[in-house]
Design goal:
Length: about 425
C-alpha cells in the first residue's frame, strides 16, 4: 500500500513537472511569435470595436537639429529622433522646432517597411557674418566647391589682385587682405583685380584673362596654392592649356556616364541636359530637353522609396533630379520659362547648386536665396535681403551660404558675408 502511494505521488509529481514545462514552452513560444510579429510591424488595434491584429509600417523620424516636435496628420505624436508604428496609408508629416522653419512632407507607409522622415531645419532668422574686410569685386568658386578666388581693387597695387579663400580652413574667418589669407597675384605687374578667372578641372591652377583692349588680351596661368611672384604668361600657348582642360572635363563626364546602366545612359542622351552631378555622384540634376516619359529601369522598385514625389513624366524645360541607385526621378521646379514669365531672367532665376549633403539644392529665384530638397519639397527662403545674384555659394560643409553684398549701403563696396544655417 505504501509503495502504491509512493508510485502515485511520483506519477503526480512527474505530471506536474510536465504540465509546468509545457506551460513554460507555450509561454516562450507565444512570446517569441509575438516578438517576431511585433518586429514585423503587427499591432493589436481596436479600429472595428474588437481586438484585431493588424500589420503596420514604421516611420523613422530624425531632424537636424534634434529635439523637434513631430506632427502626423496635424496631431503631435512624438519628438525627433524616434520611430512610430503606423497602419499602412499616406500621412502628412510635419516636423517643427521653435525658431526654425517647419518641415512638411507627404509620406507613404507600407506594411513591414521602414519609411524615413529626415528633416533639415533652417533658422527663421539666420545669422549674417562678414568674412572679408576689403571690398570684393567678384568671386569664382573652384570645381570642388571648397575654395573661392576673390578679386579686390579698392586698395594699393600691392594689396589689390586675387586672393584665395579656403572654406575648409579651420582658422575661420579668413579675412581677405589680412595675413591669414593667401594672395595669389597683385596688381603691380598687371591688373589681376580686373581679370576674368577660370579654374582648372583639378582646382590647382587658375587662368587669369586680362583685356587691356579687345585686341590686346593676355593669359596668365596661376598656381592656386601660393603667391605668384612672376605670373606665367601663356598667351602664345593658351589654346593647348584650354584643350587639355576640356579633355579632362570630358573624360570625367564620360567616366560618370559609364556608371549609368546602358538603358539609362541611352535615355539620358535624348532627354537630359545634365547641369550637375551631386557631390556624392549618386544623383543627376538635369533640365529636360524634350517632353516625354522616363521608363522604369529598376524592377522591382526599391523598398522604402517615397514614391508620392516621383515624377516620371518629363516637361521640356523643367528641372529634375534623377537618383541613380533608386531609379527615382523627381521634379524640382517647373519650366524656367513658366517660372520666369513676366520677369527679367537675370533677376528671376540662376542655375541651381548642389549643397554638400547631396540632398538639398541652392536656388536663386526672384532676388531670394532658397534651399529646396532634391524632390522639390520644402522650398525655404533663407535670405531675402540685397545681394549680387551670381555670387551665391554653399559653404564646404553645408553649415553656411556665402553671398556678396553691400547690404544696400551704396557708400561701401560689396563684400563677402555668410548666412548661418545652423
Amino acid at each position: 500500500m505504501k509503495k502504491e502511494r509512493t508510485d502515485h505521488q511520483h506519477h503526480d509529481s512527474s505530471r506536474k513537472q510536465l504540465i509546468i514545462s509545457l506551460a513554460i514552452f507555450i509561454v516562450l513560444a507565444t512570446a517569441t511569435v509575438l516578438l517576431v510579429l511585433y518586429g514585423k510591424g503587427y499591432r493589436l488595434g481596436f479600429q472595428t470595436g474588437e481586438p484585431q491584429l493588424t500589420k503596420t509600417g514604421i516611420l523613422h523620424v530624425t531632424s537636424e537639429p534634434t529635439g523637434a516636435q513631430v506632427y502626423i496628420d496635424d496631431h503631435l505624436t512624438t519628438a525627433t529622433n524616434n520611430t512610430v508604428n503606423l497602419t499602412p496609408g499616406n500621412y502628412k508629416v510635419t516636423i517643427a522646432k521653435e525658431g526654425f522653419n517647419d518641415w512638411h512632407k507627404d509620406i507613404e507607409i507600407k506594411q513591414e517597411v521602414v519609411s524615413n522622415a529626415d528633416a533639415t531645419l533652417y533658422p527663421k532668422a539666420p545669422s549674417l557674418q562678414s568674412v572679408s574686410t576689403f571690398g570684393v569685386d567678384s568671386v569664382t568658386i573652384d570645381p570642388s566647391e571648397t575654395k573661392l578666388a576673390m578679386q579686390i581693387s579698392s586698395q594699393s597695387a600691392s594689396k589689390n589682385g586675387i586672393y584665395l579663400f579656403d572654406m575648409t580652413d579651420r582658422s575661420f574667418p579668413v579675412l581677405a587682405g589680412q595675413s591669414k589669407s593667401t594672395q595669389l597675384a597683385n596688381d603691380t605687374l598687371d591688373t589681376f583685380s580686373t581679370a576674368h578667372l577660370t579654374w582648372s578641372p583639378d582646382g590647382k591652377q587658375i587662368l587669369a584673362i586680362i583685356s587691356a583692349t579687345p585686341d590686346n588680351i593676355t593669359y596668365y596661368l596661376l598656381q592656386a596654392d601660393t603667391f605668384n611672384e612672376i605670373p606665367q604668361d601663356i598667351t602664345a600657348t593658351v589654346q593647348t592649356t584650354l584643350d587639355l582642360w576640356e579633355t579632362q572635363r570630358e573624360e570625367k563626364h564620360a567616366a560618370l556616364l559609364k556608371t549609368l546602366k546602358s538603358k539609362v545612359r541611352a535615355f539620358a542622351k535624348g532627354y537630359f541636359s545634365i547641369l550637375a552631378w551631386s557631390p556624392d555622384e549618386k544623383k543627376i540634376l538635369y533640365q529636360a530637353t524634350e517632353t516625354g516619359q522616363i521608363p522604369i529601369f529598376l524592377t522591382p522598385r526599391r523598398i522604402g522609396n517615397n514614391l508620392p514625389y516621383e515624377r516620371r513624366d518629363l516637361e521640356k524645360g523643367a528641372m529634375y533630379v534623377y537618383n541613380i541607385a533608386e531609379d527615382l526621378n523627381t521634379r524640382v521646379v517647373e519650366s524656367m520659362d513658366t517660372l520666369c514669365e513676366g520677369k527679367a531672367i537675370e533677376s528671376c532665376a540662376q542655375p541651381f547648386r548642389w549643397m554638400p549633403d547631396s540632398r538639398h539644392l541652392l536656388f536663386i529665384n526672384d532676388k531670394k536665396v532658397n534651399l529646396v530638397e532634391d524632390d522639390g519639397s520644402n522650398m525655404t527662403t533663407i535670405y531675402a535681403g540685397p545681394f549680387t545674384d551670381q555670387y551665391v555659394f554653399p559653404w564646404s560643409d553645408g553649415s553656411k551660404v556665402v553671398i556678396l553684398t553691400n547690404l544696400n549701403n551704396t557708400s561701401v563696396a560689396p563684400t563677402l558675408y555668410t548666412i548661418g544655417l545652423k
